[in-house]
Write a structure and sequence with these properties.
Blueprint lengths: L1 H28 L4 E3 L14 E5 L8 E6 L10 E7 L5 H15 L8 E3 L10 E7 L6 H4 E4 L2 E12 H10 L1 H11 L14
Helix pairs in contact: 4-5
Amino acid sequence: MVTNLIGQEQLKRNMDYNKAIIKHYTDIWHITPNIIKRTDGKIYELPVDFSILEFAPIGERNYWAYATSGMSFNQKEHPTELHFFSPDQSQIEAIILTSIAHFHLFGERIGLGHTVNFGIPWRKYSKCTYGLISLPYNDGPNLENMVFNKIVTKFYWVIPITKEEREFKIENGLNALEEKFDVSNFNYINPMRESLIH
């Protein structure tokens, strides 16, 4: 009976936390998301309330946004959620984010400045097969930080990068790669862009 009660309390906390995450994104992007519940892969190992949120373009944000909701459930140290921008409506971002969430929970914890292997190209023939976990430069600290029950959850941006860019970052550091991004004015929502490192 006590175990059952604890389980119900945890479920309630997760539901409240999930609502807070959705509200946090919605307050920043000013649109209610479509909630995507995937059923493939190892989704059954993820928290029951885990989902991907799909935000349609609105106003000056003329691209789609996909975001995790629940990859930080029950994490008291460095809870993290991720988002990913796309030029069009697509399921591939949901697949990639779900895989990253699974790796984060069952492989290695992912944090700011880390790179992750998508396991697949971002789009067919895309050279972007990795993601850089970055600050949400487009939206700033208002999106980056959410306080829930006195714990700060971080909301980071997954920037698709190429294998060469990942190797450059490993050899030269995050700042050096970000400087390359700045001077090239690269298009982060173009799956077919060329690598900045040749």
